[in-house]
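INFO  loader      accepted 1 record
INFO  loader      residues=248
INFO  predictor   begin
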Amino acid sequence: MIDSTLKGFSNCAQILSGASHNSLKDVPVNGTVYGTLLNFKASYSELEPLMTNQPYQRPPEAPILYIKPRNTYNRHKGTIWLPDGIHRIQIGPALGIVIGKTAAKVTEAHAMHYIAGYTILNDVSLEHDSLYRPPIRFNALDGFCPIGPEVKEASLVQDPHNLKIDVFVNDQLMQTSHTNELVRPIPTLLADVTEFMTLYPGDVLMAGTPNNPPLVCDGDRIRITIDKIGSLENQVQSSHGKEQEGNG
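INFO  predictor   done
INFO  writer      dumping tokens
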């Protein structure tokens, strides 16, 4: 079952027809990518005092999800283009939980059986101060979700709650986080999400992104490394460079 599911991820070229300059045929997943906010303890604690303010009034009771639409998908070693007038962007390292079979109302006890594997995502965003759901114009720009370099089969990752996540910018370590810092561990997150929505084979659920995201600028090289999973590398370039490439 897992083997056939993972093989399906390599057929993204058919699903992502009309691939962009960043060769989306090399993106190793073919489903919907869901981001998860406030699932790192430090992120939650930092914003907790604001959760009772308007318009929120109380802390969230369910996972806070958002979608990274297909236009955001980017490949390992693909270019992240800066929009016109934007000089820096936020980097959001995330462990991606790749769903292997249809998951609806799963229990925590059985949640791990629904996972085909894991991958690395870079949840890129413009800077913003939204507490819960960042407006789509901030995190759904073209190429703002690099994914890869591959899907690591779940059986090869013995403990997904014991993985170090490092972010390097121009080979300098800028951030370290750890999957043992999750507010909702992976089985709890899957159970809570599938309580109100179905996840399908090939869908990807981010375990969460840590607080204080690194900021990067034109020319910066980004490498996100997660233990047992691998390294996802991308480079940031200004839209001026994109125009020159298009004219070449």
